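#onboarding

Welcome to the new folks! Below is a worked example of what a typical request in this channel looks like: someone posts a single protein sequence, and someone else replies with the predicted structure as tokens. Don't worry about understanding the tokens yet, we'll cover that in week two.

Example request:
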Amino acid sequence: MNFIKTSIPDLIIIEPIVFGDHRGYFLESYNQKKFEEHLNKVEFVQDNESKSTKGVLRGLHFQKPPYAQTKLVRCITGRVLDVVLDLRKGSPTYGKHEIVELSGENKRQLFVPRGFAHGYVVLSEEAIFSYKVDNWYAPECEGGIMWNDENLQIDWKINKEEVKLSEKDTKLELFKNFESPFTY
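Example response:
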């Protein structure tokens, strides 16, 4: 596994080593020992998976303490544009975002620590997205930032007319009104 730093501290792209032949491929998507060598110790407690069609945008979501979550995300089939926003007060990259394309082809993963908002949009006709989390889901601790907040200048690489949102995601707050519960 290769652990690649991004422009935001603690946000890491993980490229697995893929072994392929005429039968298909094999890769190691998670190895606790390697993660502990390159990142902090993380105990994942739940795996989630979603299937979405082109234009589905999920995010930008996070959970507030005490149920904040670290995530390890990947796209198993299809292509998504993954967006992560730094919400940690005092961080040199507070309010900045990172964009990474994840796909079944490139097999990249993204390690998203606590203190970040996360979202993705499906670029292919269909995508299966999978992620591990290190804390339990708590609806009362849900939070989110509007995906199209003009102050954030996020280029989602898709026409706004193609975006499909849940009702909940149409009502998220603007970043300028956000009081962060996270510190760097």
